[in-house]
Please model this.
Amino acid sequence: MQFYMPVRVFDEADCVAKHAVYLASFGKKALIVTGKTSAVKCGALHDVEDALKENGTDWCVFSDVEENPSVETVVRAAHFAREEGADYVIGIGGGSPLDAAKAIAFLLKREIISASDLYNASADPCALDVIAIPTTCGTGSEVTGVSVLTVHEKKTKSSIPHKIFPKAALIDGKYLHSAPVSMMINTAVDALAHMIESYESVKADDYSRAAVRQGMRLWAQSADILRGKRKASDEDYARMMRASTFAGIAIAQTGTSIPHALSYILTYDLKMPHGMACGYFLARFLKEADDEDRKELLSLAGFESLEQFEAYMQEVFPDVTVPAETLQRAYDVVVKNTARLKGCRFAPDAECLKRIAGL
Ligand code: NAP
Ligand code: FE
Model:
């Protein structure tokens, strides 16, 4: 067994203010990477700017990261940061800005900034230091080395081959106060998918499963807020954020599995949010799993049966339809990916993959 999680995690209320000196200590000028508006709306950008100001560290902001960030955006941000003389990177946001921050930090270590290095597996994987501040409760990107980018040339999304773990993650549930319910649902289901898929990986072991079990317990305590049954409390936000971080710790060990692999085509073709796209396959994936695994996963997430889980997913994602040709394209891509198929504990054959895809 092995466990590698080199990210220093701070998880507490007012985390950024409490660790301001530390946050400001990584260099002379930080590049802050955000999405278009959420870093301002949730208050995280303000907290980070205050922390840097108080401690005499300069910064510049790149606030143009789109959802499912593209290679082009990352290259543009790296040019901007180089002109500004930034020497470390702070990512604030959901998985999109956090993943972009890692890829930008990688490009900034190259003499010449070039998109071709991003997917060159033999390139030196060194990167500038990255600090990650999550504002969604889904990707766990703050504790993984993964950076997923949209590759328009290939009409899909794909992880860069370099593992770029943030130096630290500053986690504070208060940044979820500004989140619309739809974003909470999409991202919390992404975290759930990470836990289920990690558990079903051939790489899963006692260490990664400990993270899944604790993440699931936290997730289950707040799952009803996604159905709009009650208003989320501060504790719910902190729990959902922490569940997502535990899920990230698990996938940092095992990677994701079939639902994620299939989801990328739905997101590319239909602009479907990442969590919704993974969630679309989740119940059918669980159905194919070994009986004992399915029972444990469902029970950890607070469900008595697969039918109850399906009903829950239907309730949080009503009326999701995917055209057959998109499912077929997703299937066609994944069926060729033998590493993905073999990486799953029940190693789906072509027929089984068809059932998971819903074909
Ligand atoms: P996201 O794409 O980062 O953000 C989704 C939307 O939520 C954006 O419109 C964003 O606004 C908004 N938002 C973010 N935080 C908010 C807040 N606190 N309040 C209000 N609105 C907020 O969402 P995500 O699901 O976290 O990330 C998805 C990406 O992560 C995908 O590209 C996926 O492939 C990747 N991913 C990475 C990993 C990994 O291990 N690295 C794992 C799974 C998925 P703004 O645009 O204004 O920011
Ligand atoms: Fe995901």
About this structure: Residues 35-38, 41-42, 67-68, 93-97, 99, 135-136, 138-141, 144, 146, 148, 157, 175-176, 178-179, 183, 186-187, 190, 274-275 surround NAP (ligand 1) (CB under 6 Å). The CA atoms of residues 234 and 351 lie 45 Å apart. The chain has two domains: 8-174, 180-357. The longest helix spans residues 234-254.
